[in-house]
Amino acid sequence: MKPATLRETFFKRYAATYARALADKPGVAEAVSGALADYFVESSPAGVHGGKNGLVFRVMAKRGYARYRKIGVQSMDISRLDVTPLKDGQHAMAQVRWDSRTVRKTDGRFVRIVFEHTYFLTLVGGKPRIFAYVATDEEAILKRHGLI
């Protein structure tokens, strides 16, 4: 899959999933699950964690989005996306700058948080899937902005 296709379709759908999740629309967990490989890995300052994509993951995804709604996250948009195909032609790396808009519950003030994640995708089978990502320290960012 070409970088332009990843930018225009896969990540556009992936970002739209956040919008649906924040609006508490049905089918979000299934959409997120569909964007991930059967097994995936996350690396962040909290450590490296892996998980199987399935029912338990979908339940956890619903809880995660409920938490975002609870702390006041209003939107999560991609403000920059750089896709680099890897030499084997079957994988790609995507650096995504997310732009989050939140209304802090304690004082009603608007909080804008910009952060980056790096995603690794497999293109095997013709449909891109995230198999790993490197995340920022989300808990520290939320605490620093008084959101948790």
Task: Explain what the structure shows.
This protein has four helices and six strands, in the order ααββαββββα. By secondary structure, the protein is of the alpha+beta class. The mean pLDDT is 91.
Give me a quick take on this structure.
The protein is of the alpha+beta class. The protein has helices at residues 3-22, 28-35, 55-71, 138-144; strands at 36-44, 47-52, 73-85, 91-103, 110-122, 129-134. It starts with a helix and ends with a helix.
Task: Write the topology of this structure.
Elements: H1 3-22, H2 28-35, E1 36-44, E2 47-52, H3 55-71, E3 73-85, E4 91-103, E5 110-122, E6 129-134, H4 138-144
List keywords for this structure.
single chain; 148 residues; alpha+beta; 6-stranded mixed beta sheet; 4 helices; 41% strand; globular
- Global mean pLDDT: 91
User: Can you tell me the residue ranges where pLDDT is under 50 for at least 5 consecutive residues?
Assistant: none
Q: What overall form do the CA principal axes indicate?
A: globular
Structural class: alpha+beta
State the helical fraction.
25-40%
- Strand residue content: 35-45%
Largest sheet: 6 strands, mixed
Number of E-state strands: 6
Radius of gyration: 15 Å
Strand arrangement across the biggest beta sheet? 2-1-6-5-4-3
Please provide the ordered H/E string of secondary-structure elements.
Answer: HHEEHEEEEH
